[in-house]
Amino acid sequence: MTESASGHNDNYKLMYEEYERGPRKIAELCYAARVGDVTKAIQLVEISGVNINDTDEWDNSPLFLASLCGHYDMVEYLLSSGAAYDKNSFEGARCVLAALTPRIKSLLINSSLSKKFDDLEPFTSHIYGIYSSSKPLFYGDVILQIHSNHWKQEFALHWFIIQTRLGFLVNLATTNNSSLLIIQDAEGLESVSWKALINYAYLRVEDTQREEFELILRFAQLHHLDDLIRDVKVFGDIRERQVYGKLKGKITSKMIKNGILDFTHFFHSHIIVNKLSVPCSGTFEAQNEENNGFEDLEMFLSPDCRLKLIQCSSRPDMIVGVYDDGTDRICYYPVHQSMLARSPYLETMFGSELFTAKYESKPIKTNDLGTATIVDRYNLQSKHVPVVNFSFGAGNAKIAEIILEFLYTCSAEIALNVAADIIFIAEEIFLDKLKALASAAIVNQLNTMTFEEIQSCDLVFKYSIYDLIRVSWVTKCDKLEQAITQVIALKLDDFVMQKNQLKKIIIESSKRIDNREETDTIEFVDDLRYYLTKAYLEDDPIKYETYSTFVDEMLMELDFKEARVDT
Amino acid sequence: MLPSGNKRTKIRPPRRSLLDNAISGVVKDHGAEFEKSWRLLLIAIKLIQEKNVSELSYEQLYRMAYTLVLKNYGTKLYDNVCQQIKQHLLQRRLHLVLSDMMDDEANFLKEISIEWNEHLQAMKFISDVLMYMNRVHVKEQKVPYIYDLGIVLFLENVIEYNDHEIGHRLIDTIILEINNSWKGQIITTKTYITKTISMMNELEYGKRTVAAATVTADDVDNEGSNYYQRYFEPRFLSVSSTFFSQFALECLALESGSHYVQATSQFINEQESMLNFFLSTTTHPKLMQLMCNVLVKDRIDYIISLPYENHGLSYWLDNVIRNITATTRSDPHYEELRLLYDLVGRFDPERKLLKLRLRDRIIEDGQKIEQIALEMAQNSIKSSSFSSSASKKSPSISFNSSSFATNWVNSVLDFKNQYFKIISRSFGRDHTFEESIISSMRTFVNKNGFNAPEILSIYIDHCLKQLTKGGSKTPVDELLGNALTFINLIRDKDAFEAYYANHFAKRFLNSKGGASRMVDGMDIEDLFISKVVDMLGLSTVAKLLKMNKETKLSWELTKEWKKLVEADKDKSLIEMELKICNTVDWPKSMTKDYRIFVGDEAEGQAPFIWPKQLRHTMKQFEEYWSLGKKNSSKKLYWSPKFGNMELRISYPSRTYDISLSTYAGIIMLLFAPQSDESCILPFEEKRSYTYTEIKGLTQINDADLRRQLQSIAVAPRLRLLTKTPMSKEVNDLDIFQLNEKFKSPTTKVKVLTVSSSSSSSGSTGKVTATTADDDSLEVNARIIEGRKVILDAAVVRIMKSRMSLNHNDLIGELLKQLASRFQPLPLMIKQCLAGLIEKDYIMRDPKERNVYRYIA
């Protein structure tokens, strides 16, 4: 009786909260956006969990209101907290058009490029896929056995993930050989919680209940596992169930960010540290003139070195070789197939018989229960571990390392002098996010440069600004092209001097369409006009007229009969 | 090619050069550059096609293709690859055509499937290498993926090349092999047939639509989206159709239905599983449908309707009707019936055709049962009369004799049970067939001119009597079950009720006390009525229930009266078994003349004269009943027609307890001492009366009086009275006296009233026969009366709720509402409507004659 009554009460409470959070709260947020009360907005969004992209009863979003009322700080906060802004949508256009000041306008326009790349979902689901998939490509290499008084459980895991995420297990284990970890008397943690812990290691935390994390926290405290305590505590601390529900999204994303830090740490302290570099002397011979810059790097790796790599602390199942022309040496990295397979290109390659035919398939063994199959590290020999030629990174170990870092951590510090090269490689091996990171690095730099600096930007990027446009064309990197065009538009005063280069770009842009018709517009010119209109039409019509005339002139001289689009 | 000094700038890919062809206008040296990479790729592709991949490096090949696409050579690369695949395939085709394999079916199919597999394998490799082109170029140019291109090219350059040279050959070979297997040959090519068929399925036309310029409108029409559907399937179905027709003719050649169902069932079942193995899921149903149409649907009615000699349905079912009379039973042809059921189900899950033909058989055979039952009844009488008497004249059996009724009902039930057995043995316990059979049986059971309700009632009456006499070997349950099953077959339930009420009343009035209804501790009348209530509903049998209730009240009363008699100090009261029936509820045939016994002065009818010995008791009872039992509002009539009397008569030989009918008792009482005081013994007195005197003293009507006198004075052995002159006929001037010489071996004597049928004279015989018919006619009249009332009520009820309704709708509604009781005849409905119009319940719409309106 009492139970059902309280259940009903709970339901009622939930409904009331739903209502509380609903129309009333969004109205409060909209009010805060109008008056520019950032503190209130933070409170509403972070604590009360108001949906930042909701609208009030007149269909106004907080971002629109903040932009309309000219609160720069508020707009900045809303954008950083995930307010949707897409200049191509009606709502987005409305925000820009309504913006009270040019400063807010440009903040909005640039937001889509400067926006932090925090969508980690593809990365985390790949990591979890390594655990959950049954493909041979993703076989683990260690069995974790948990013995308790009442039960025994086995997990097929990957050594490098244990090193990355659950390093303490090695200390807890009673048995620890190349492919078996046994934990006796798993004090304080039930079978279900172990599963949750494994999921946590493979960055799958959103399905786990708070209670599980509390158990894990208690376990961590019992065994003084400081790293684990730090990570799990964010969860375990929160006693209030309702608060937990509201903050869950933020907490999980924080956990995942911590997890990615673990991966970064692992990458540097187990892969980079263990890299071997070999001078290309003596035996090195060009195979064939027609090799198109391609060399078989496997032959430069001596059997001893190869074995050393295989047995190094990262416990690799694959070796990547890269020629570095700066040092004239060949670098070898002990890596993991399952992480490299984040690149669809590499995954296809690993699956193709053209590749697998060259190596013996890895020895495998199955546990006694027949429930898990793992790679048998004990019997793993050189012939089982492929040496992959990172031909796309060839010539520069730094580039190769950036790519590897990206594959392992989903983030990378992109040096400007290789950013454009990275774009090419990302295109080649199908890493769209890396491409976006690299082009964002270039754009952010360009936005801070003066005209003089831009003139000599090939010193920074190794490519001139015009070549960068060409790079964006070839690699289908539209955002980069638009951002560069905008830079040119805003600095057209100075670029007038480079009329010839501009004309050349116009010609090239026009030729990008096969069988072009007279009515077809030229993409580059369109973009240029667009950004001119935005920047000057209202603020400085005279300047706008001058620039427009300049563009027309160029077209005239090039004999393009392009209809002028009046805005 | 190392430059000296360990400097190998060459190893670094000239990434910057990737921009060179970013715009096609600024291409320099472009032919040479492309050719250089393409040469290597071509070698690789050739190696792949020769299954020699060990020397190839995936990274290198991918990179070359990537570079070419990035440098805007995508279209050229695509075309070149296409060209190479095409050339390779043409070569392979030539190899196929020229090799000797073409003559050997098995090898031919094997070779084709091997070629196909190798081609797909090669295309997978090529597709992996050209992954970047697939992702970028293919999407931009909207051309097919490399892998799909491979399929299209195989279709165009191998299968369809040279006017489908290989394609047609392939189709012919497969069809030939499948045909051989139909003919019973064992084929060795099953796996290859499966493989090549799945190949034809994968050869899709849809993939070409984005491909080459050779696309024509008919590629995308609905002829089928792949080679299998477009070319193989139509051809295969048409060849199959011919084959099946041929097969059907072969099966028919034997002119035997049994053979046909066996052969086709076996063939279809075998093919069903075998073809499932080869054919695509889309063809299989089509082919099975074709097979069923040709082998079953088009011919099965012919097979079913084959005459007896040719083993059609009539042959398979023949034993059912034979079994009814046969001494040793033989099964109907369950196996053939089962096959037939399965075959018919292949094209119609409801099996309407089979139900229809079955119905025809049931009605035809069912009507024979009437004759069979008649013969059976005659035979039993013959055999009994042979043994008992010498009478050789063929006894005539009427339809309402209990002997016929029993035989007929049992036969019909037997008939039904045999069909139900067929359902469970051959028709997969299909409940729809149960309904269908019951409804078919209803048709012959209720056919015109045959009074099934009455016969059933006679049957039940007979059985109940047997049961209460303890003479029946049938257990109560079985009898009940049979009777209830049979009620289900009766269309006019109300008629049955009426007949049943009549028989019930007779049983009650002729019974001696409630105990006589008890069998095995159960009141069987109660039991039966309660079952009938369950079946027909309370309202239908309301009268029956009331009657049954009154019988029980009567027994109570009898018991109470007995106590009263015992308590009576004067011993002036006579013990009576009382049977009091309410004239409203009991059948009219029983109660119609209850008034005549008190006399009717207007008609000159003298009242019946009760003997003075009884009058005191009757008067006492009347008082007791109307006052003591508070029945003053009702009027009690005595009916001497029914009931019995027990007399103790001291004949000179000894004293007998004689049980006789009320009339006979009253006649005997005329000869008893007239008062207690009189000390003259009747035998000394030698009182005698003539027939006319007796009639005057009792006022019993002539027919009854003659019958009663025959019973007690003429019938041999039990002559309580003597008649002078001694003859069978009773004449007005005959003189009756107590029979001094009466003797009987037992002291208890039961006098049976002479039955009407064995009445001696022709004239009286006729009279009694007509009374029996009168009985039946009266019941009929009563049924019709009842129906009129129900019909009127139904019409008024319907019209009241609908207010206005056209004629046909009204009839429909009426039939629906009355279906559970009877089927009203159109004439009756017409009369009923006319009556209601006259009585101003309803009227015809002044504008539309067809529409009736309810008058509120």
Briefly, what is this?
The complex is a heterodimer of chains A (567) and B (856). Chain A is of the alpha+beta class and 567 residues long.
Structure, described:
The complex is a heterodimer of chains A (567) and B (856). Chain A is an alpha+beta fold and 567 residues long. In chain A, 56% of the residues lie in helices and 8% in strands. In chain A, strand 3 and strand 4 (180-183) form a beta hairpin. In chain A, helix 1 runs antiparallel to helix 2 and helix 12 (226-236) packs antiparallel against helix 13 (241-272). Chain B is mainly alpha-helical. Helix content of chain B is 61%, strand content 5%. Chain B has 32 helices and eleven strands. In chain B, strand 1 and strand 2 form a beta hairpin. The N and C termini of chain B lie far apart (118 Å). Residues 1-14, 22-28, 210-222, 387-394 and 757-770 of chain B have low confidence and may be disordered. Classes of the chains: A alpha+beta (567), B mainly alpha (856). Chains A and B meet through helix 16, helix 17, helix 19, helix 23 and helix 26 of A and helix 1, helix 2, helix 4 and helix 5 of B.
- Largest beta-sheet characterization of chain A: 4 strands, mixed
- Helix percentage range of chain B: 55-70%
CATH-defined architecture of the largest domain in chain A: 2-Layer Sandwich
CATH class of the largest domain in chain A: Alpha Beta
User: What's the story with the biggest beta sheet of chain B?
Assistant: 3 strands, mixed
What is the approximate shape of chain A? Answer: flat
Mean pLDDT of chain B: 80
Determine the strand fraction of chain B and express it as a percent band: under 5%
- Overall average pLDDT of chain A: 80
- Estimate what percentage of residues of chain A fall within beta strands: 5-15%
Task: Tell me the CATH architecture of the largest domain in chain B.
Answer: Up-down Bundle
Distance between the termini of chain B: 118 Å
Number of helices of chain A: 28
Low-pLDDT sequence parts of chain B:
1-14, 22-28, 210-222, 387-394, 757-770
Please tell me the total number of domains of chain A: 4
Shape of chain B: elongated
InterPro entries (chain A): ABTB1 (IPR044515), Ankyrin_rpt (IPR002110), Ankyrin_rpt-contain_sf (IPR036770), SKP1/BTB/POZ_sf (IPR011333)
Keywords (chain A): ANK repeat, Repeat
Pfam families (chain A): Ank_2 (PF12796)
Protein name (chain A): Ankyrin repeat protein
